[in-house]
Each structure stands twice: as structure tokens, then as C-alpha cells.
Amino acid sequence: MNRVYVCSCFGITEKQVEEHAAAGACTPRQIASVSKAGTDCGSCVRRIQGILGRGACPRRELLEQGRGASVLAADPEGTRPVLDEAA
């Protein structure tokens, strides 16, 4: 299996960053809150920014539609971000 590590400090792969982004994390800080990537040495932050810049951001799209009340929240296990539209 070929894994491309984005954050070697915490063993976070590019695929994991992409999954968190698909679930609603739109910034390196939001990725850090769910995975710790970018919180130790910080050398991966620019790479995370590059990955986030490649795709659509569901959260940003909601804001553009005037649905700013939607917020990013952690799931019960605290492992993946999800959009919580009830807030």
C-alpha cells in the first residue's frame, strides 16, 4: 500500500486530509482540530493548504448561499468533522 504522508509528526496521510476536507474542514486549523496535523513542527501546513485549495469547500459554499449558521462540529468519537446544520 502506498501512503503519502502529509504530516510525519502524527502520521496523517493526504487521503485523511482529503476525507476531513470532504466532511467540511476548510482550513489548516480545522484539519488540525480533528487530526493534530500541523500542530507540532508546522512543516506540513503549506501542504495542507495546497490540498484544501484543490477541492470545493462545503462549508464555504454554505456561507456563500447565506447559510452561515452551519458550523463545523466534531462527531461523537471526535475523529471526523461533520457539518452541523442545527446550530
Structure description:
Helix content is 39%, strand content 15%. It has 87 residues and is of the alpha+beta class. The strands form 2 sheets. Strands 1-2 form a two-stranded antiparallel sheet. Strands 3-4 form a two-stranded antiparallel ribbon. Strand 1 and strand 2 form a beta hairpin. The longest helix is centred in the middle third of the chain and has 10 residues, at 45-54. The radius of gyration is 13 Å and the shape is globular.
Termini gap: 40 Å
Structural class from helices and strands?
A: alpha+beta
Helix content class: 25-40%
Tally the helices: 4
Question: Short description, anyone?
Answer:
This protein is an alpha+beta fold. It has 4 helices and 4 strands.
